[in-house]
Amino acid sequence: MRHPLYIILxxxxxxxxxxxxxxxxxxxxNENAKAAWQRYHQACDxxxxxxxxxxxxxxxxxxxxxxxxxxxxRALVYDQAWHMKIAEQFYKKSYQAYASDPSQDWYSxxxxxxxxxxxxxxxxxxxxxxxxxxQLLNQAEKNQAFPKNTETALLMLLADxxxxxxxxxxxxxxxxxxxxxxxxxxxHQSRRGWDIAWISMNIxxxxxxxxxxxxxxxxxxxxxxxxxxxxxxxxxxxxIEEWKGHVALRQALLLHESGNVSEAAATYTAxxxxxxxxxxxxxxxxxxxxxxxxxxxxxxxxxxxxSTYLATDGAKMTFDNIATRLSPxxxxxxxxxxxxxxxxxxxxxxxxxxxxxxxxxQSDAAELAxxxxxxxxxxxxxxxxxxxxxxxxxxTAAAIIILLIAYLLWRxxxxxxxxxxxxxxxxxxxxxxxxxxxxxxxxxxxxxxAELTTDQQLYRRICALMNEKQPYxxxxxxxxxxxxxxxxxxxxxxxxxxxCSHGESVGDFINRYRLEHVARLLKTTDDPIALxxxxxxxxxxxxxxRLFRNAxxxxxxxxxxxxxxx
Length: 566
Description:
82% of the residues lie in helices and 0% in strands. The protein has 566 residues and is mainly α. The protein has a domain of 148 residues: Arc Repressor Mutant, subunit A.
């Protein structure tokens, strides 16, 4: 054994080396971080998904960004690429990681939460979206550091939800609160006009949807005033003209709906066609023309919308595209009396639906694969970080680390030896119990039916079904569907299983068959445990681990190791 003083001197020497290295490498680290961020922005601007993800991985590995920040960046990249399911997973991870201490990064915390709420609302989870919005707005009320821009966006999202729930008055009040928040935040910004114009336009839409046409016109007037201010702040005259076109189109529609038909027509006619430069403007023009009964003209704008998208992403036909591009054009054709065009378009819609189904299935499969790969990548990154830390410790105190590793290996060896002996014993007990159960079932199958009770007869049918058809491999199997397969009801099913399988419930009975199937696959195949769980009706790896440990006293991995050693 070395003298304790020698060990202390060795540690001091290591610390001195680390201190000198830290000062010399700090400047280099800053330069590396700046270069990494530049590469990230370049990849995003080029919409190069794989390159951006690789840069984020390197930034996380090099500790330029924290893990929650890296997850937020990944979510933004996937969001930009329209991989919404994957983006939602990363927004969720980032938000939940920051939730315990949002002060780490208020912007990333609030932005991840807002975007997660948006995606949850997009797929119909209104309650989940409201839960996240409420949590974030509570934080905004209590903390001055909460970003005001995000608070405004959250309030507008809340107003949109209230609108969907037909809470029109509440939606208007929430939108007004968002407007006040935006005004407070925009008072010291150079983009005050654009910010007020944006929110005024959205509030006008809320009032319009609520049925308050005059209120919608009033907010539209505020939007027009804000555009005048934006014109003084901003040099992009093309964008200003585009926005003016939007305001005029909205005004024409609102005037028409309020009964000012002539004024609405004059407003529409006065709009220079140079202001109608993109699909949103085409849609607004078509909406006004449809309301005014000018269906043939509306059909022209719907055709422009469709041709514009076909020139960019026509190969990716989705259900949203069908709803926004094809269905309105079909309605315009029919109302304009252009039945032949309507019939041709109806055939196109049928083909488009088939195309959308194929594309959606491919997209879902690809996103699920990425989610699984991402989980594996997270594990690899954790292993890599551990390796880097271990190397640094070896440099500073090699002798101590070697002794520590030797001690830990010895402890691990002793522990694994005890654990292996315990698991071998459990394995033998499992095999014995399985043999006893199979023997009981075999005896029951061999008995004449006349000697069996009603419960035993039904139980024998249940076991035959489970062994022959293996319905338990379907994760959706439950007591209702099992009873339906056997032509009985859940009461008799539960009673038969309880009486003939030593008090098991239906759920425990089904899970026992699933776990036995898992055990068979673990013994006879080298398939991944996650895949084995899916093939056995337990797709959740966490649920599989919990059920397997409760039933067998060990994990699936330990079970497979015991099998390999036999």
